[in-house]
Batch of 2 targets.
Target 1
Amino acid sequence: MSEIHRVVVVGNGLAGARLQEEIHRRDPTAERVRVVVYGDEKHAAYNRILLSNVVAGHLTPGDTRIKPENWCERNGLETHIGVAVTSVDPATRTLTRSDGGADTYDTLVLATGSRSFLPPAPGMTDENGAPSDGIVAFRTLADCDTITAGTGPGSRVVVIGAGLLGIEAARGALMRGSHVTIVHPRSYPMEKQMDAGGGAVLTRVLRELGMDVALNARAESVRTAPDGTRELVLSDGSALPADLVVVAAGIRPNVELARTAGLLVDRAVVVDDDLRTSDPHIRAIGECAQHRGEVYGLVQPAWEMAGVVADQLCGTGANTTYDGTAQITRLKAHDVDLASMGEIDIDPNDLESEVLVMSDPTRGRYAKVVVRKDRLVGAVMLGNPEVVGTLSQYFDGGSLVPVDRMTLLLGHLVGGPTESANPSTMPDSAVICRCNTVTKKQLVGAWRGGAHTPEAMADKTRATTGCGSCVGVVDGLCEWLHRADPPDTPAPQDIHRDTVTATSRRSS
Ligand SMILES: Cc1cc2nc3c(=O)[nH]c(=O)nc-3n(C[C@H](O)[C@H](O)[C@H](O)COP(=O)(O)OP(=O)(O)OC[C@H]3O[C@@H](n4cnc5c(N)ncnc54)[C@H](O)[C@@H]3O)c2cc1C
């Protein structure tokens, strides 16, 4: 019998925990691959994406747990919680740990993720570089505890950064009753996913929800006012009183371990299409990896990378390589529906592209699509969620868009292609769950294989177990299949139960 391959995963976040699960699915009795995970956080693996829902009060920290209690033990999996890997020696394939122990590996997988960037402003950090009192990043479950403790009626919260996370944190604090100001250095929020026109509408939406938005403003320092309260000083010299400052000013990949091990590091750990680093026995996945120049900040690529590495290590897909992920970003803030994909910042007069824009600031709506050679190459949709599914299908599939481009913007209002958001007419290739890259075809296959409830479909395919925004579509698909392709046995009654759309389902 051949020897068991020992895989050590550094990081028990979304990429690391998924890799362990993917290997377990392929080799449940660990006959070929033995996987050990080290995670420095003091919790079992949790779904980081759902932290915004915790801040908003829609979920408890416990709801974010990825697997039920003792899942690893019951499945014979080795996970060391609260233990950091402190150094790696590629020459001897050994590592040291924060608990004083050491380990060896055949393959090491770095899944160390990122940390929040703290602007180098006086008063922001203590002498160890950790956030000062009253300052918190927005990255971990522990950060969430601090945010929920510091928000509520009467508290003044300043959020630094109006990107995706900043807006989600600000919306959550507002829902808890705090007075919220969001401070952003650019002239409009979410400039990576929006153009200036959409940004102006988004700013108006945020203000109408009740938060103050300070644009073109930088955090200069944090100081104590004469009355002993905390203030955030801005670049124009003004000062904002702040009981709590939440920092969402960007992320930085955790690359120190890789760097000291002598691996090639650019903005993140450089990997090839096999997700191998410059050392052939070390791979990197998730936010700490840089693939073809891209450093991703979303879960879909992290989980796709985990699948590829699991296939390669288990020999279940030796020819599988990672080719990159087309990203679609969705904001998960209550009452603000925003989706953004592909090339956005294209000028309407660009001769190579067709650019259509619809702006309805009074109703908080903005839509822009960019078409090139009859294909959708970019879109931003604010306040128009019905159209997003259809646009994603054009964007993912690269199919020809309708001759009347206006239907892309307005969808059903002009009899346009939102029909394809209907489960019966949706193409098989439509990606329903983005986080897990699950298509309609896979869901229908799960149904035909006996998964006759949304939960059973989630177990089989993992759809709905990421950010949860596809819960409604999967429920709709399941209801449609009950009518169109009824199972032999009576349908379970629970398919019409209330589904919690803000949360995602947990796979077992
Ligand atoms: C509030 C919030 C909301 C988000 N919402 C979305 C969303 O809606 N959609 C989306 O696609 N993405 C979202 N993201 C981004 C998504 O969470 C990340 O892309 C994903 O977590 C990346 O997974 P990862 O495993 O690479 O990193 P992480 O999940 O950060 O995991 C890395 C883990 O490794 C640990 N670690 C680091 N160094 C060591 C070491 N030396 N030893 C042991 N352990 C170590 C870290 O502590 C961490 O636990 C969100 C992120 C946040 C913070």
Target 2
Amino acid sequence: MNLIYQEFIQAVKACSGPVLWVVDEHALHLTPSQLGDTSRITFITNRVDQMNSLTEDGLTCHYSDFEFDALPQSGFDLVLYRVSKEKAIVHHVINQAAQVLKPNGKLVLAGGKNEGIKTYVDKATKYLNAEKHIEKISKDDWIAELKNQHSDEPSLDDKNYRELIEINQQNGLSLISKPGVFGWNKVDQGSAYLIEQMPEFMKRLNLSKDQVTQSVIDLGCGYGYLLSSMPQFGFKTLVGTDNNAAAITAAKATLAANDLEGEIIAANCAEGIDQKFDVVVCNPPFHQGFSVEGELTDRFLASARRLLVSGGAAIFVVNAFIPIESKAKHYFKKVDELANNKKFKVIRLAGKKPYQAEL
Ligand SMILES: C[S@@+](CC[C@H](N)C(=O)[O-])C[C@H]1O[C@@H](n2cnc3c(N)ncnc32)[C@H](O)[C@@H]1O
């Protein structure tokens, strides 16, 4: 197990009162037996997959866009937080932690040097007027324990974390977003490239004559850019789904701002969505790295396959160097590159292959 989580478990065991553990996108492989008495531990997460695995393990977990107001104020002796990738989230969580910590309660912050952990620790120390103990636990990682003494210092700049704002007017659409959403303050270049290929994709749709192209689902919808662009291609039923609570809030707001009817569903890779769709659009979360992250890629492709009506098709955009085709061939008979600008490629997936179990 990751050294940071080993340290967190030690901190839980050393504390006899209520504990709050903040969980975001970082993988957390815990077994309840490692934690001792779990009845005094509350988890809070903004990710559906994390909530599912924690609650399946019988642990208490709040799922929200890090809304700490729903938790007992000044109610925790210990708050544990492995810092997130985005600065606004980290500042928001530190500000919120100050509200839920008891006087003299401890905030434990951990993370990598390249993630700015030392700067976050300094800022939190000042904000909490804290006694600080900081320790290097590996080549890259640091952990700090801050004893909350309440100060009159202004809270950390969280870029108005809770506020939804209009980030852009694009093709007559009003795009509403907020910190905490993937690429929250811009239109993703890959997604814009996918939209450019939609007319060609629609021409090739091969639905039977009595099927009218009507329904579309956006898998990993973010703040809803792709989804809210779909009515211009004739879609009437709009569904978006994402794992991240911030994205769910923003995507609902984007639909509302454009007077669009649609459903936005919080789910892990569309798990639990039984409806079928004529089209799946997707800008998956795995295009940033240098390889196709195994399990997540398969899950997005499998979901796309499962969610389509027969004769339907999916359109994915990924970084040009991602070899998604080899995996996609396990799920679809037709895997065609619609466009490639050397940075991104847009792939059309059609002709569902039966699952192994159905063969
Ligand atoms: C590259 S972004 C695309 C966002 C949006 N479609 C756009 O065009 O701006 C990928 C999205 O996938 C979401 N995501 C990551 N893991 C997920 C999962 N397990 N299930 C559902 N969505 C997930 C992320 O929260 C993010 O919003």
